[in-house]
Input
Amino acid sequence: MNKKVAIPVLSGIFVLLVGVLLLLNFLPSLQSGGSQGTAALKVNGVSVTKEQLESARTQNPVLGTATTGALGDDFKALIVDQQVNQAVLKAAAEDQKIERSTVNDQVTKTRSSNNLTDNKAWTDALRSAGFSDSSYREYVRSSLAIQAKAKAIQATAPKPTDAQLQLYFQLNPQAFQSDPRIVAREIVVATRAKADQLLTQLKGGADFAALASANSLENKERGGALGPIENGAPRAVALVALPSEVGAAAFAKTTGGLTDVVASGGKFYIVKVEKFLPASTKTFAEAKTAVTDAVSTELKNQALETWIDSLKKGVKVEVINPDWKYNNPTVAVVDGRNIPYAEVVSGVVSNQQFSALLQQAPAEQAAPLVNSFLKPGIVQQLMQQYAAPAIVKSQNIALVGSRAELLAGLNAYGARDVKVQDSDISAYYQANQKTFQSAAKATVSEAVFKDKQQALAFRQDFKSGDFTALASKAGATVSERGAVTQGDKKLPDALDKAVFASARLQAAGVGSLSDVVENGGTFSVAYVTDLVKASVKPLSEVSTTIHDQLLTQKKQAAATAYVTAQMKSVKTQDLLSQVLAAQTKRLAAEAPKTTTPPPPAAGTPSTTAPATTTPANTPATGTPATTPSTK
Output
């Protein structure tokens, strides 16, 4: 597992709210459960039921994988935190008036989209999620109220300033570029052999449009042109006009020319690029509307996050059911603000590496790896996010947005002056020649003889003609190997070397013969046609790819260096190691203790099973455990 974690880590309540803002036609069984049941918690005096908490655990494929040990303890903290957040949001939106007709419309839409128009099916689905019809409608009403409240908060966001718009445009040039396009034609055929044959003709000077009209499975009526013919020439097309593999090969032809044969979807493509039109950046005036929309969205997100932060202050959580006593300590302190441990667990649960790890290892084995490699990176990223507002303010940078958006903006700001020089591209090309090498290819027929002298005599006598017929007449078994690429294992290693790595091919008719090669007691001669030797793509063909790759690498390095330097001006404290140590100690104390009875007296059979005693749990305090902030 990589130590560096590069995922956006957002506040759990912010993620929850984003989900509410995207309220769609959800199935009731996928929600967190109804309000009916046994109270497990009280959030500011409002009950959260055991059924809600259990449903949240079982409905999530990750949270349901562990209920004990370190990961089970982590998941419990996250589940409770999510339900606390939901209760806080619900209470904050009580001032929103949602008409009964609006609720009814949403319920009708949900039933229809989930094929639950039958009343019994609908009732059964609700019951399985812990709802009655009335409690579900109340759930929908509160969700719509949260959505309305959030939109009202977003509406209070200020309008973007010109400085904010200009900086966003400067830092995000890729968002305001027209896509590269090509003027090109294609030939699409069903077999590799046919494609190789046509490519040989094209390289010999054959007219591409004529061959496309005669042979292509696509666009033959316009000579293979990818775009419609306008004023006698094909219209330029973007990358999406071609299958991904074919598009990659065609758009690498920045100076024009023929691609090699490219296989995709069971077909074989040849593309001739007549003109390459590189991406171009729009002017600020051309992009201003899109820039304004983007910055306005970030300002709305900032207003929303500020509101959410205010809701979380002073929340009182009382644990009613000891089974749901949880621990959510402060895992880091940044600029006087505490980061709760549940935010780290949320980052773990949403990480793809973690999901993959759980498929390969049981929870008790996964936990130490998560603690050692995943959590430290997530904590560091959260600390950078929490520090981002202070850095932006101290540096007087015209960035806006949520903490995650501000951090992304700081990374872009730190890398804003990075450039890639032609010398960088040339040096990379020279140092990585193998990366740009295309393998040798040929069409091969193999004649297999039982006797070496027969094979040698045939090789000596064959000058031209039908290879298969003449080799068969000479006593060989002939196999049509078809299109072969060096090293693709279609040929035995020795024969592959004789075809591609030997300079001793003997000219014969339209092709050539390999040396006689022994293979497991038999002797082979390969007839090679359409041989294309291995070659290195010219720098002009790959320079754009190298440029983009180097630019990304340099920007990442510059961004990391900038943010790391700025973090030194912010007072921080990473408490992860203390939190994990405390968790280990607490779980060990809570684990059942096995007591071994004294050995039986001599001659007395042993019948007493080992006794298991469990120490009394520490009384619930009613609030999540926290570590005092360090300022």
